[in-house]
Amino acid sequence: MRSFIGTTTQAVRAGAIIVLTLACGVLPAAAESPWLGSAHEAHIVPASVHPSGLIPSQRLAVLESVASQPPAPAPALASRGRYALPMVLSAVVPGAGEISLGHWWRGLPLVAADVATWLGYANFQSEGRDLRERYERFADENWDESRWQDSLTVTRFWDENAPWNCDCSPPYITPEEDLREYYENLGKYPQFFPGWADWDRNYDPEDPQSLRRIYSDM
Q1: Cα separation of 144 and 179, whole Å?
Q2: Is 148 exposed, middle or buried (0-12, 13-18, 19+ CB in 10 A)?
């Protein structure tokens, strides 16, 4: 189980590294792309001089003058476009956008915090699975369905006409029907206490040494 968690964590970290690598390569290339600049280039004719009001020779002079002018600067929207990818990267891995823009000391703490969060989450998930496996194994070793049915005959819950011969609520739930509820009910409801290995007619389910109490305290 722990090896599975470790493999998943390594995959997440590897994916983050790939994303950051692509960001560092794509952003500079996009900034130098001639396509981005040419899409916004335009030659502007001065508003005070319009060729339609001039004689042909004057029109030609004006057009040649305009053609010789350097391209107009790209609109501010083009410069803001370079932040689109960093925003996406930050949404995927907090801090990755800052790193892709060269702001390492801003991005690294965020990336470190994100990695620590996921590692902590994986650790708690692993501990939870270990605890569940432990109490399920304890129940399997100390509670038995056949013993419960035999011992039930001398309790107030016995009813040969009821399902599982038990006049009880909630009813007995098998592991096949609902695994979580099955294990929860064994230590929670008195009608199921006769199935514990140490049960007798004078059974005290609150005795700290009783199997039922040990199970409930897990």
Answers
A1: 15
A2: buried
User: What does the block give as tokens for 169?
Assistant: 């609520």
Element (H, E) at 56: helix 56-67
What does the pLDDT profile of the chain (218 residues) look like in tens digits? 444 444 455 555 545 554 554 444 444 444 444 433 433 444 444 444 454 555 666 655 655 665 666 665 555 544 566 778 888 888 888 888 888 888 888 888 988 898 888 888 888 888 889 989 999 999 999 999 999 999 999 999 999 999 999 999 999 999 999 999 999 999 999 999 999 999 998 999 999 999 999 999 98
Distance CA 86, CA 98 (A): 7
Backbone angles phi, psi at 107, to 5 degrees: -80, -35
CA nearest neighbour of 196 among 215, 181, 170: 215
CB 89 within 8 A of CB 22: no
Structure tokens at 47: 């508003």
Do the Cβ atoms of 40 and 78 come closer than 8 Å? yes
